[in-house]
Amino acid sequence: MTSMKSQTATDFQPVSAMDFLPVPQLRQVQLQRLQAIVARAYQNVPLFRQRMEARGVTPADLGTLEDIVRLPFTEKADLRDTYPFGLFASPMTEIVRLHASSGTTGKPIVVAYTQEDVDDWTNAMMRSFAACGLHRGDIIQNAYGYGLFTGGLGAHYGAEALGATVIPISGGNTDRQIMVLKDFGVTAICCTPSYFLHVVERAGELGVKLRDLPLKAGIFGAEPWTEAMRQRIQAESGIKAYDIYGLSEITGPGVAMECRCQAGPHLFEDLFYPEIIDLKTGEPCADGQEGELVLTTLCKRAMPMIRYRTHDITAITSEPCACGRSLRRILRIARRSDDMLIIRGVNLYPSQVEAALLAVEGTLPHYQIIVDRQKGLDSVEVQVEVTPEFFSDKVSALEGLQSQLAHSIERITGLRMEVRLVQPHTLQRSEGKAKRVIDKRKM
Ligand code: DLL
Asked: How many angstroms separate the alpha carbon of residue 424 from the centre of ligand 1?
């Protein structure tokens, strides 16, 4: 880990040698960094030290990467319990940035960065843009929210380091987004996939043909989305849609990013050490096996995260990618273990409903799942918007569509659900992460 403190953004190389490092060398880099970061956390973070002591393990016990399983896990609750600064491993005088993630309940979690942490993050984001073919000369419209959310500033610094032109438009004001896309010759856009769908729809209403613009790539993430959604986005806009993954606790966007092969995000393994654990037993999973992603930050100084349980469900693959990167890939993260709904005893993930809806023509992928309990029995209603052409059609066609959707949902989820077709623009659009589920049982 070389210090980048004195480096200016223009010193970064867009395609890092780290992306192509031979695997044995990469593992060596990981081990050295792991040993250093665990020692730092042990020395500076009381919670981490106590947990290690309770397990009778010290940093000196980490002889190989496999020894990582001896370390305790870190959970989101640990960040809440130590709110706001309890997990920091650097004095405040070395911390140059704070971000926070709101979460669904109570206080946010707070994350911190030293200048070197910001530089590493910038590097990861720059490599992310380079991975999908962007470079100096590209004009990147950054519609991730600026502020406490990591999306805006994370993408911003990475785009500048790449040498691209960044437009810090932030989220929302869709008509202005479309004007800028058109007038500024934008070649790439960053936002959530659900927001981009809204942009596509609004552009259509305004008579702006996205496929006739220079726009060629979308860097979409921050929420689960399906392969079917990618296909729909690409077909409707003529751009390539790339999946970018990240989370505040680990750094922000740029933990993993797809290359031009679009075959699942490559993990920046020199910065983050991944494990997959069995959802039930917590035991390590083999390559290709699905489970919960656990991440350890290998360089983060202000707030090292050791074996952080992300609750994101995926598998790691070391199958070679045609791009030649030696960085392993994760499979698309379509669900989280804590997103799972239990309906009449059956497990349901919102992404299954999305896949079922997109398998049928005639709907817009704007949908919401409303769960309720009446007389002790769970009920689910799926509200889904119909395309304008379909809505003006005959009642019989709408009924046909409704039953096709209900069948598709039952086939994929094993559950019978009420499908309610609603007019275009009925469901609320989000500027960031879409809210797909309203669970009235919890209200
Ligand atoms: O969403 C960071 C980010 C910003 C990532 C912009 C990508 C682009 P948080 O708000 O802390 O951070 O939310 C992190 O969002 O644990 C996943 O559940 C989900 N998530 C993020 N990216 C993806 C993705 C940002 N590509 C949480 N696919 C994570 C599926 C994603 N889920």
From this structure: 27
**CA-based end-to-end distance of the chain:** 48
Q: Convert the pLDDT of each residue in 348-386 to its tens digit.
A: 999 999 999 999 988 878 999 999 998 889 999 999 998
| Ligand 1 centroid – CA 246 distance (Å) | 5
**Of 337, 362, 377, which one is at a domain's C-terminal end?**
337
Residues with CB under 6 A from ligand 1: 101, 144, 150-151, 221-224, 243-248, 252-253, 310, 312, 333, 336
pLDDT in tens, 5-39: 344 444 455 678 999 999 999 999 999 999 999 99
Containing structural domain, residue 380: 340-442
CA 141/CA 186 separation, integer angstroms: 6
Based on the domain organization, do 274 and 206 belong to the same domain? yes
Q: Which atom of ligand 1 is nearest to the CA of 256?
A: 26
Same-domain check for residues 317 and 383: no
How many separate domains does the chain show? 2
88: CA distance to ligand 1 center in Å? Answer: 22
Report pLDDT digits (tens) over 261-272.
Answer: 999 999 999 999
Confirm if 371 and 379 have CB atoms less than 8 A apart: yes
Peptide bond preceding 265 in cis form (omega within 30 of 0): no
